[in-house]
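Possible race condition, two jobs.
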Amino acid sequence: MTAGHDTSFRGRRFALIATIVIQSLYMLTIPLWYIVSMFSVMLFDDPNAERFPPVLIFYYSLQSYPYVTVIMIAVSWLLYRKRYYRRAVLMNILPVALIVIGLIPMLIWGE
């Protein structure tokens, strides 16, 4: 067995374990997302909130979370099957990055 093949095996194994663990955590957060989604309309309690871009960005990032999660789960498994292990793991991180990117404007410009 060559060193290159051994590295590929470790990368494949790491990608498989990381993908399963991360996606299991996503499946646990979907019911919590439902509760957060119900209360996210309270972001618009202030009459001027609908014209405040950070509120809109955060609201739409919260609402798109389950759709992005399901799409990224499918994409990551397709990439894993095509042996793009590093890309498969990176696709698993995208739903969390979406929420963080939506939260940053609220933290910077929010009151």
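Job #2 (started ~2 s after job #1):
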Amino acid sequence: MDGRPVWRRPVLVMTNRVARPNREPPAPSAGTAAHRDYTGAVYGSMLAASVVAGAGALDGHPRLEMILLLLGTGLVFWGAHVHARLFGTRLGRRASGLAQVRRACAEEWPIVKAAVPPAAAVAVGPVFRLDLDGSLWLALAVALAGQVGWAATAARRSGASWAMVAVTGAVNLLLGLLIVTLKAALHH
């Protein structure tokens, strides 16, 4: 043994009957990558919270405009992440095929999915007799809950201890509360 931890030792792979160290981590299987990586959902929830917190005066139909702003922002960032992922995989390699495009779209889709619950909160606000401002606070709470929930789920599914799940939940709660603090400070 060379004294390095197991995860730091090079893995030997057979290529053309010659064993060479594998310098890249193994790629996740296509069907499970989107299910295991909750980064997009955490990011999307934080993005939705930021959109709600940063929304200024909305004209005309403010509730509808806020819903469209949340969903539209999620879609734009999803497209940007898909493009970045595809561009990153193309550097030094052949062009992306349709399968890679589909996989990238699927793997980044949680960014859009994370915008749906806060948008739904804005839409159902009147059911709870909330004015637009109350609906925005509800949407912000839903986005924050999503951010903490997705982060904790990701930590637990990756095999983290319950202590690490609590830490990641607390860090994401703190980040979300910073957004809430900004909204409160700018609102008054």
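Residues 4-35 have pLDDT under 50 and may be disordered.
Logs attached separately.
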